[in-house]
Design goal:
The protein has about 250 residues and is of the alpha+beta class. It has seven helices and nine strands. Strands 1, 2, 3, 4, 5, 6, 7, 8 and 9 form a nine-stranded mixed β-sheet that branches. Strand 8 and strand 9 form a beta hairpin.
């Protein structure tokens, strides 16, 4: 299998295949973040060089994708901020104000379901580090969505992020992959990304009924969903874990 890294600037038409190719890779609710409407199109208009695909030339199929944005950062854990949404807003605010970025922030690293388990997430992570280095940035910030957190939705993410296996490595598989790749667990946040919708929308996204107001756990959710029947509103904050990677050679 001959794989090529293709940036959006090189073949923008490939990105039209993304929705179908990556269907099911993340839970449906995760495709409806509140932050998406205001910034998604600008991601490719303003930062196309930071979006890339892993492409199988022989079979003409996309096998992975990486999305990222340059953002300001002063090098401290406190300045990481709460997570994904804040980083997206910050990146565009920095650009609009002409501020120089301090790090590259990952928005997503995804591998198609039929190519998972082949170590391609590490390939994409390395490509993101290379992207940062080429842009003169010495750090990649990753607001990780912990793979197994949905098994423990009531456990605070700060506690979950600190769990380890008997061999001392991180309990969570995706955090473990990041650490093995040289990353450092820097912080955890309960408020990385906000997703809101009507009760009917949340019932559609989760395949569950929410007959009364209150807090609910749901399939694929990393934390509880708050349902307000009177306001016809479901509100969910997805937690995240900050991992930092050094882009050597800058």
């Amino acid at each position: 299998m001959a794989l090529t890294l293709v940036r959006h600037t090189q073949r923008p038409e490939l990105w039209d295949r993304i929705p179908e190719r990556f269907a099911g890779v993340v839970p449906e609710y995760n495709l409806h973040g509140d932050i998406n409407d205001g910034y998604w199109n600008r991601l490719f208009e303003d930062f196309p060089e930071f979006q890339f695909l892993l492409y199988d030339d022989e079979h003409e199929v996309i096998v992975g994708a990486g999305r990222s944005l340059p953002r300001s950062w002063d090098g401290t854990a406190a300045d990481l901020g709460p997570g994904l949404d804040d980083s997206i807003r910050r990146a565009f605010a920095d650009r609009d104000a002409g501020r120089a970025p301090g790090a590259l922030c990952a928005l997503g690293i995804e591998v198609a379901e039929d190519h998972q388990g082949r170590g391609l997430s590490k390939v994409l992570l390395d490509a993101m580090t290379d992207t940062a280095r080429s842009a003169g940035l010495d750090t990649v910030l990753v607001p990780v969505r912990p793979t197994w957190k949905d098994r423990y939705p009531l456990t605070p993410v700060e506690r979950y992020a600190a769990w380890t296996r008997d061999d001392g490595t991180p309990f969570d598989p995706w955090i473990r992959t990041q650490v093995r790749a040289g990353g450092t667990v820097a912080a955890a946040s309960a408020y990385s990304s906000r997703i809101s919708g009507t009760v009917a929308e949340w019932e559609s996204w989760t395949g569950m009924a929410f007959p009364d107001a209150g807090e609910y756990t749901f399939p694929g959710g990393l934390a509880p969903l708050h349902v307000d029947r009177e306001q016809d509103l479901g509100t969910y904050w997805e937690p995240g874990v900050w991992i930092t990677h050094r882009a050597q050679g800058v």
